Amino acid sequence: MQRFLTARDAAMSLRPDAPVYCFRPEVLAADARDFMAAFPGETAYAVKTNGEKLVLETLAKAGVTMFDVASPGEFEAVRSVAPEAGMIYMHPVKAQSDINLALQTYGIRTLALDHEDEVAKILRIVRALDLDPSTITLFIRLQTKGHAAYELSKKFGAAPAHAVELLQRCDRIGFKVGICFHVGSQIEEPETYERALASANWVRSRAGVTLAGLDVGGGFPAEYGHDPRRRKPDMPSLAEIMARLRADLAEWGFSDLPLVAEPGRVVVARAFSLIVRVLLRKGRRLYINDGIWASLSDSWTGKITLPARFIPDPARRSRKGDPKAMTAFRVCGATCDSVDILSRPFWLPDTVDTGDWIEIGHIGAYSLSLRTRFNGFYPDTFVEVDQPFDAGEAPQGYASLETMAD
Ligand SMILES: *Cc1c(COP(=O)(O)O)cnc(C)c1O
């Protein structure tokens, strides 16, 4: 892979017409190590956030020994780059054949569920393979209520009384049991984990079974850009959230249990930026070579503020506009689909024009893992970049949280 100091250097050297992912392995390793150092238990990276081979390899090298997986594709992705790593299969609703594959072929021994029919599915395979249930840990996924940019509590999780019943049922069969929850992605209130822990404590005290572990899931917020037109949201740093989580774990009596976390976004977001090219400027519209069907579907929801850096094409001799003025541009994606327009404007220097590049920062999470081949566009060019996105010149632009009138 070609290596550059900055994305600007990459753009100048390659003059890319296709989107380019700028991978920063040192940033990824450092963010993973920071998380592991701060979390008082095992760290299982959530593969769905970004399952690229180079990401999994870098994480394994940085000392991540456990991965949260949800499908045969993810089992294989992890096994092929980190054969010694442990896997936990935390999807609450699984195909019978995938459970069989997990237990028989991949030796996975930790699974999650939120319904008795899932217990029956797992038990059927355990019996067929003649496994001892006590070698398997089943985590009961608890419903949570909290505030995250992306809520998942409506889709998965057993209500507390139901969770009690599931814990007792699995315990009676002879499985080891634990409690897990996933509060959603990019939490917006620091109290979110505490509420979930209070609920887990209620369930534990009613169930009266010995717990083998507690899994607090993901949701830890990544730091994105800040829209200067908005008051800075007072979201605490990861260090503060972790300090609070440790205190809450102690308060609710969970500190002596084996603990697991499944971070995704907070580990990988800063590890990539994306160089896109302006294919056409039409008034206040920028048509770029990426979009919501490729790397920018997460930004399309408008819930995060992506920082951006303007990389003017030096080959352009004349420019219109005031280089110091910032303008809100409507950003249109590469496909011919009319919904492929970012929901929020990008503020960029007024002089942006056809042929220029924009580096969009912190897109490592839920961007390239969500890209499609729609309309024949599939960004797949990677370079390595040494300098962290935030270490360079201050980003001049950002995707605003405001909506924009056409
Ligand atoms: C997606 C997911 C994660 C990762 O969430 P982040 O918000 O990216 O940290 C963790 N656990 C489960 C069960 C998930 O579905």
From TrEMBL:
Residues 33-269 form the Orn/DAP/Arg decarboxylase 2 N-terminal domain. Residues 270-362 form the Orn/DAP/Arg decarboxylase 2 C-terminal domain. It holds the Pfam family Orn_DAP_Arg_deC. The active site is at residue 336. The modification N6-(pyridoxal phosphate)lysine is found at residue 48. InterPro entries: Ala_racemase/Decarboxylase_C (IPR009006), De-COase2_C (IPR022643), De-COase2_N (IPR022644), Orn/DAP/Arg_de-COase (IPR000183), Orn_de-COase (IPR002433), PLP-binding_barrel (IPR029066). GO terms for molecular function: ornithine decarboxylase activity. Its cofactor is pyridoxal 5'-phosphate. GO terms for cellular component: cytoplasm. Signal peptide: none annotated. Keywords: Lyase, Pyridoxal phosphate. GO terms for biological process: putrescine biosynthetic process from arginine, via ornithine. Belongs to the Orn/Lys/Arg decarboxylase class-II family. This is Ornithine decarboxylase. It comes from Aureimonas endophytica.
